[in-house]
Amino acid sequence: MPEYSYWIIAGLALIIAEFAISGLVVIFFGIAAIVVGSLKFIGLLDDTTWELTLFALISVLLLVFVRRVLSEKLMGKEQRHEGEEDSAGLIGQRATVADPFTDGTGTVNYRGARWQAQSSQPLKPGQMVRIVKHDGLWLTVEPWDPAASN
Hints:
By secondary structure, this protein is α+β, with helices and mostly antiparallel strands. It has helices at 3-21, 26-41, 48-75, and strands at residues 94-102, 105-110, 113-118, 128-135, 138-143.
């Protein structure tokens, strides 16, 4: 088997491995191996040292420059916008107190899920509350005032 075929087979195997690993890293090694194999096939490379050097150089360049662009396009880019404190849309919504609040903390039910909550006012089970702040897994609530919802 000609020497260039080893590079091409290794490149294809690495590209296929990317589907199993899916870290957007291995594919660049596969592309570099295919490029080196192709250059070897057309006769531009004939020294193993140059093959390995070119393989390493192409792999690093692809990883550094192309991976960032592809990962943003394929996987999305998470950004935190100023003033967007409640990306889940919970602020202003109505919830029901599940357990009595002791020492300012308790639990509330919101859309079938139980949330840890805090409040500066005493709250009783079954009482309706308004969500005023959402911080991670914690909600800050206050008693529901129908006049405030208008």
